[in-house]
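G., the chain you wanted modeled:
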Amino acid sequence: MSMAAARRRVGVLISGRGSNMVSLAEAAQAPDYPAEIALVVSNIPDVAGLERARGFGIATATVDHRPFGKDREAFEQAVDELLRLNRIEIVVLAGFMRILTPWFVKRWEGRMINIHPSLLPLFKGTHTHRQALEAGVAEHGCSVHFVVPELDAGPVILQAKVPVLPGDDEDRLAQRVLVEEHKLYPAALAEVASGRARLVDGAVIRG
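Predicted structure as tokens:
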């Protein structure tokens, strides 16, 4: 069986410019990378990330969450159907600004990952760079984790650290973390797609 045939089909969910999606698509161009970005789905029409994905020749789709109103599960069922029609095996959240219901998380348990701009378990939720600066930490960074129903609480696959420098503001710190995100996410996806990192009983098992 060739390496190309063995690559895992990945669906990326985005809501915006898709900078992390681009880093994954670039990594997946390497012939020995264990995953292919097969589909990019946005919950917001016409975002820049969709155009960027098409530039890589990746299939794209939009499932606008607004017509579903407050019925989050109905929206997720539409996304889930799209993922299954495209034979997606791993779901990657890349700037996807929707909180997922336990139904969807359970459907993709052990096969869905997210990147968060902090060294989890520190600074969950939003405004992580501001949280880090206010806390006066010496190190900040980003984490890739398996998605579980509790927000930003899934077991960590990989982390990358950056120093917090004198004179840092949120923007400077965010830029430094983003550079690491673009390296960390492809590395973490490779771990999951190759089976080197697996979610077993709520913990990451390696090997």
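The longest strand covers residues 35-42.

Shout if anything looks off.
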